Amino acid sequence: xxxxxxxxxxxxxxxxxxxxxxxxxxxxxxxxxxxxxxxxxxxxxxxxxxxxxxxxxxxxxxxxxxxxxxxxxxxxxxxxxxxxxxxxxxxxxxxxxxxxxxxxxxxxxxxxxxxxxxxxxxxxxxxxxxxxxxxxxxxxxxxxxxxxxxxxxxxxxxxxxxxxxxxxxxxxxxxxxxxxxxxxxxxxxxxxxxxxxxxxxxxxxxxxxx
Length: 210
Known about the structure:
Elements: E1 2-6, H1 13-16, H2 36-46, E2 50-55, E3 61-66, E4 91-95, H3 99-111, E5 115-119, H4 122-132, E6 136-142, H5 150-160, E7 165-170, E8 188-191, H6 196-208
Protein backbone atom coordinates (compact mmCIF):
# COMPACT_ATOMS: atom_id res chain seq x y z
CA UNK A 1 0.00 0.00 0.00
CA UNK A 2 1.22 3.48 -0.92
CA UNK A 3 -0.25 6.46 0.93
CA UNK A 4 0.07 10.12 -0.10
CA UNK A 5 -1.46 12.95 1.95
CA UNK A 6 -1.58 16.73 1.87
CA UNK A 7 -2.94 19.48 4.11
CA UNK A 8 -4.59 21.47 1.32
CA UNK A 9 -8.14 22.73 0.89
CA UNK A 10 -9.60 19.25 0.44
CA UNK A 11 -12.58 18.25 -1.70
CA UNK A 12 -16.31 17.89 -1.24
CA UNK A 13 -18.13 14.66 -2.11
CA UNK A 14 -19.30 15.91 -5.51
CA UNK A 15 -15.71 16.66 -6.58
CA UNK A 16 -14.36 13.38 -5.16
CA UNK A 17 -16.81 11.41 -7.29
CA UNK A 18 -15.38 12.91 -10.49
CA UNK A 19 -11.63 13.25 -9.89
CA UNK A 20 -10.71 10.17 -11.95
CA UNK A 21 -12.78 11.19 -14.98
CA UNK A 22 -10.61 12.03 -18.01
CA UNK A 23 -10.37 15.82 -18.48
CA UNK A 24 -12.24 16.72 -15.29
CA UNK A 25 -10.42 19.56 -13.52
CA UNK A 26 -11.21 22.25 -10.97
CA UNK A 27 -8.39 24.41 -12.32
CA UNK A 28 -8.88 27.30 -14.69
CA UNK A 29 -8.16 27.33 -18.45
CA UNK A 30 -4.54 26.57 -19.40
CA UNK A 31 -3.77 25.47 -15.81
CA UNK A 32 -4.58 21.80 -16.04
CA UNK A 33 -5.66 19.10 -18.49
CA UNK A 34 -7.58 16.89 -16.07
CA UNK A 35 -5.50 13.92 -17.22
CA UNK A 36 -3.17 13.40 -14.25
CA UNK A 37 -5.40 11.41 -11.92
CA UNK A 38 -7.11 9.66 -14.84
CA UNK A 39 -3.71 8.35 -15.94
CA UNK A 40 -2.86 7.29 -12.38
CA UNK A 41 -6.16 5.44 -12.15
CA UNK A 42 -5.52 3.70 -15.46
CA UNK A 43 -2.01 2.61 -14.47
CA UNK A 44 -3.17 1.28 -11.10
CA UNK A 45 -6.02 -0.67 -12.74
CA UNK A 46 -3.62 -2.14 -15.30
CA UNK A 47 -1.65 -3.57 -12.36
CA UNK A 48 -4.81 -5.02 -10.73
CA UNK A 49 -4.79 -2.41 -7.96
CA UNK A 50 -7.26 0.13 -6.65
CA UNK A 51 -7.25 3.62 -5.12
CA UNK A 52 -9.05 4.86 -2.03
CA UNK A 53 -9.52 8.61 -1.57
CA UNK A 54 -10.36 10.37 1.68
CA UNK A 55 -10.92 14.11 1.65
CA UNK A 56 -12.99 16.77 3.36
CA UNK A 57 -13.14 20.52 2.69
CA UNK A 58 -10.50 22.24 4.79
CA UNK A 59 -8.94 18.97 5.98
CA UNK A 60 -6.69 17.95 3.11
CA UNK A 61 -6.69 14.77 1.05
CA UNK A 62 -5.25 11.27 1.39
CA UNK A 63 -4.80 8.83 -1.50
CA UNK A 64 -4.13 5.19 -0.65
CA UNK A 65 -3.02 2.99 -3.54
CA UNK A 66 -3.26 -0.78 -3.10
CA UNK A 67 -1.46 -3.34 -5.28
CA UNK A 68 -1.71 -7.15 -5.14
CA UNK A 69 1.14 -9.04 -3.52
CA UNK A 70 3.49 -10.77 -5.97
CA UNK A 71 5.88 -13.70 -5.58
CA UNK A 72 8.80 -12.10 -7.43
CA UNK A 73 11.83 -11.02 -5.34
CA UNK A 74 11.80 -7.39 -4.26
CA UNK A 75 14.83 -6.58 -6.40
CA UNK A 76 13.47 -8.24 -9.55
CA UNK A 77 13.18 -5.86 -12.48
CA UNK A 78 11.24 -6.39 -15.66
CA UNK A 79 12.16 -4.02 -18.46
CA UNK A 80 9.92 -3.91 -21.50
CA UNK A 81 11.40 -2.11 -24.46
CA UNK A 82 8.98 -0.72 -27.00
CA UNK A 83 11.71 0.59 -29.25
CA UNK A 84 12.24 4.04 -30.68
CA UNK A 85 9.19 6.17 -31.46
CA UNK A 86 9.47 7.29 -35.07
CA UNK A 87 7.91 10.49 -36.34
CA UNK A 88 7.51 11.79 -39.86
CA UNK A 89 6.86 14.79 -42.06
CA UNK A 90 3.31 14.06 -43.24
CA UNK A 91 0.41 16.47 -42.84
CA UNK A 92 -2.18 15.42 -40.26
CA UNK A 93 -5.64 16.86 -39.72
CA UNK A 94 -6.50 16.98 -36.00
CA UNK A 95 -10.10 17.52 -34.84
CA UNK A 96 -10.69 17.72 -31.08
CA UNK A 97 -13.18 19.94 -29.24
CA UNK A 98 -11.45 19.84 -25.83
CA UNK A 99 -8.95 22.71 -25.85
CA UNK A 100 -6.44 21.16 -23.44
CA UNK A 101 -6.41 17.81 -25.24
CA UNK A 102 -6.24 19.53 -28.61
CA UNK A 103 -3.18 21.56 -27.62
CA UNK A 104 -1.45 18.55 -26.05
CA UNK A 105 -2.09 16.38 -29.11
CA UNK A 106 -1.01 19.12 -31.51
CA UNK A 107 2.24 19.73 -29.60
CA UNK A 108 3.00 16.01 -29.54
CA UNK A 109 2.49 15.62 -33.28
CA UNK A 110 4.53 18.73 -34.11
CA UNK A 111 7.36 17.50 -31.88
CA UNK A 112 7.38 14.30 -33.97
CA UNK A 113 7.94 16.34 -37.13
CA UNK A 114 4.41 16.32 -38.54
CA UNK A 115 2.61 19.31 -40.00
CA UNK A 116 -0.70 19.68 -38.17
CA UNK A 117 -3.94 21.32 -39.35
CA UNK A 118 -6.27 21.88 -36.39
CA UNK A 119 -10.07 21.91 -36.12
CA UNK A 120 -12.27 22.46 -33.05
CA UNK A 121 -15.15 20.28 -34.27
CA UNK A 122 -16.14 17.89 -37.03
CA UNK A 123 -17.71 20.53 -39.24
CA UNK A 124 -14.55 22.66 -39.24
CA UNK A 125 -12.50 19.52 -39.93
CA UNK A 126 -14.51 18.80 -43.08
CA UNK A 127 -14.12 22.42 -44.22
CA UNK A 128 -10.34 22.21 -43.77
CA UNK A 129 -10.24 18.89 -45.59
CA UNK A 130 -12.12 20.32 -48.57
CA UNK A 131 -9.41 22.99 -48.89
CA UNK A 132 -6.34 20.89 -48.09
CA UNK A 133 -7.39 17.29 -48.74
CA UNK A 134 -4.63 16.59 -51.25
CA UNK A 135 -2.00 17.49 -48.63
CA UNK A 136 -3.49 15.48 -45.75
CA UNK A 137 -2.13 11.98 -45.17
CA UNK A 138 -4.21 11.16 -42.11
CA UNK A 139 -6.99 12.46 -39.84
CA UNK A 140 -6.95 12.21 -36.04
CA UNK A 141 -10.56 12.63 -34.90
CA UNK A 142 -12.32 12.76 -31.57
CA UNK A 143 -15.38 10.51 -31.74
CA UNK A 144 -17.78 12.89 -29.97
CA UNK A 145 -17.65 16.56 -31.04
CA UNK A 146 -20.11 19.43 -31.52
CA UNK A 147 -21.79 19.96 -34.90
CA UNK A 148 -20.32 16.74 -36.37
CA UNK A 149 -18.83 13.74 -34.62
CA UNK A 150 -15.61 12.10 -35.78
CA UNK A 151 -17.35 9.32 -37.72
CA UNK A 152 -19.68 11.72 -39.54
CA UNK A 153 -16.75 13.97 -40.45
CA UNK A 154 -14.69 11.00 -41.64
CA UNK A 155 -17.54 9.69 -43.80
CA UNK A 156 -17.64 13.03 -45.62
CA UNK A 157 -13.86 13.12 -46.02
CA UNK A 158 -13.61 9.66 -47.61
CA UNK A 159 -16.14 10.73 -50.23
CA UNK A 160 -13.55 13.31 -51.25
CA UNK A 161 -10.50 11.09 -50.72
CA UNK A 162 -11.30 7.35 -50.58
CA UNK A 163 -8.86 5.37 -48.46
CA UNK A 164 -8.02 8.27 -46.13
CA UNK A 165 -6.25 6.95 -43.03
CA UNK A 166 -7.73 7.90 -39.67
CA UNK A 167 -7.26 7.45 -35.93
CA UNK A 168 -10.28 7.91 -33.65
CA UNK A 169 -9.94 9.18 -30.07
CA UNK A 170 -12.33 8.88 -27.14
CA UNK A 171 -12.36 9.11 -23.36
CA UNK A 172 -14.42 5.90 -23.31
CA UNK A 173 -13.08 2.43 -24.01
CA UNK A 174 -13.86 0.84 -27.36
CA UNK A 175 -16.26 -1.57 -25.64
CA UNK A 176 -18.11 1.13 -23.69
CA UNK A 177 -18.36 3.79 -26.37
CA UNK A 178 -21.80 4.31 -27.90
CA UNK A 179 -20.25 4.59 -31.36
CA UNK A 180 -19.79 0.86 -32.05
CA UNK A 181 -18.02 1.51 -35.38
CA UNK A 182 -14.69 1.76 -33.52
CA UNK A 183 -14.87 -2.01 -32.97
CA UNK A 184 -15.03 -2.78 -36.69
CA UNK A 185 -11.98 -4.37 -38.38
CA UNK A 186 -9.63 -1.81 -39.86
CA UNK A 187 -10.72 1.03 -37.55
CA UNK A 188 -7.86 2.50 -35.51
CA UNK A 189 -8.79 3.67 -32.01
CA UNK A 190 -6.86 5.23 -29.12
CA UNK A 191 -8.45 5.64 -25.72
CA UNK A 192 -7.95 8.82 -23.70
CA UNK A 193 -6.04 9.62 -21.64
CA UNK A 194 -2.99 8.61 -23.64
CA UNK A 195 0.69 9.37 -23.28
CA UNK A 196 2.60 11.30 -25.96
CA UNK A 197 4.53 8.10 -26.76
CA UNK A 198 1.33 6.09 -27.19
CA UNK A 199 -0.08 8.73 -29.54
CA UNK A 200 3.14 8.93 -31.56
CA UNK A 201 3.35 5.14 -31.92
CA UNK A 202 -0.29 4.78 -32.94
CA UNK A 203 -0.10 7.58 -35.50
CA UNK A 204 3.03 6.09 -37.08
CA UNK A 205 1.41 2.65 -37.08
CA UNK A 206 -1.64 3.95 -38.96
CA UNK A 207 0.44 5.94 -41.45
CA UNK A 208 2.65 2.93 -42.22
CA UNK A 209 -0.30 0.58 -42.71
CA UNK A 210 -0.68 -0.56 -46.31
